[in-house]
Amino acid sequence: MGDILSSAMTYSKLLDIEYQLVLGRKNKTLALSIYFDENQFFHLAGLQYLTDRATLLYGDRSYLFQKILSGSITREQIESSSFYSEIKERVDYLAYLETIMDSNKTIFKYNTKLDAFSSITADFLMKNEIQSRNIFTFLSQDKLNGKYFCRSFFPQEDKDYSEGQTTWTLLYKKKIQKTPELETVLYDRLKK
What is the DSSP letter of 118? Predict the structure, then answer.
């Protein structure tokens, strides 16, 4: 599978992409815009768990992302952490995030109260299957711009985080590439 550099390179392509979704449930619709930011990569890759690399991974997260892309922080430095085995699958599957975003049709309104032992705070949960493995992507709303971002991301271990959550129906999904400007409708149940 992948490594930290290939996942960072794949993620960097998403920085120029935004997704617009329309969800429906019980005659109500909700529009979401999902964006990606350099700062988010650190947490999505699980780098916060590499506590024995704290001095290497200390500082502005956007700057750290750029250091990974440039090779200033190497794959070897990351993988030599005693805790790397805890995030390896996360890093591997992160290379599929665009595929997940393009294909996902299963979205849940995430109720944190149903997962009392979880520290994840999110508004929505997307569940996908990649290589016969369930992948969870948690979305939270950015209070400054009203758009949503990926708060957390990981493959399923034991717990199915979608269990008991309220399913919303995907009605419409559009992928917007900013440069060059290109819009692609990925899914449309609104068309009559």
Answer: -
Read off the tokens for 167.
């399913």
**Residue 31 three-state SS:** strand
Q: Rounded CA gap, 112 and 185, in Å?
A: 31
Distant-in-sequence, close-in-space partners of 89: CB < 8 Å, separation ≥ 6: 154, 155
| Residue 22 neighbours by CB distance under 10 Å | 19
Angle at 36 between CA 111 and CA 184, to 5 degrees: 100
Query: Cis omega before residue 155 (within 30°)?
Result: no
Cα 51 to Cα 16, 126, 182, distances in angstroms: 31, 28, 41
Kindly report, residue by residue over 27-86, the tens digit of the pLDDT.
999 999 999 999 999 999 999 999 999 999 999 999 999 999 999 999 999 999 999 999
Q: How far apart, in whole angstroms, are the C-alpha atoms of residue 8 and residue 140?
A: 21
